Amino acid sequence: MTALKLIWFVAQIALHAITYPERFPTDASKVAFATSFMRDYAANWFQPYLNRIFN
């Protein structure tokens, strides 16, 4: 993913969280939502952080 794509991805996630605050009452719910879009290398890289958040 290029830096520009990352910036747009983060902006879209933030916009969605702001638009639907009732769906994302906690930071953990925001992280889970953003992570659901991660694949391959990004998903593998983020797995240890998810384990810490949800365990």
From TrEMBL:
User: Hey, what's the signal peptide range on this chain?
Assistant: 1-21
* Alphabetical keyword list: Signal
Report what the protein is called: Uncharacterized protein
- Protein's organism: Puccinia sorghi
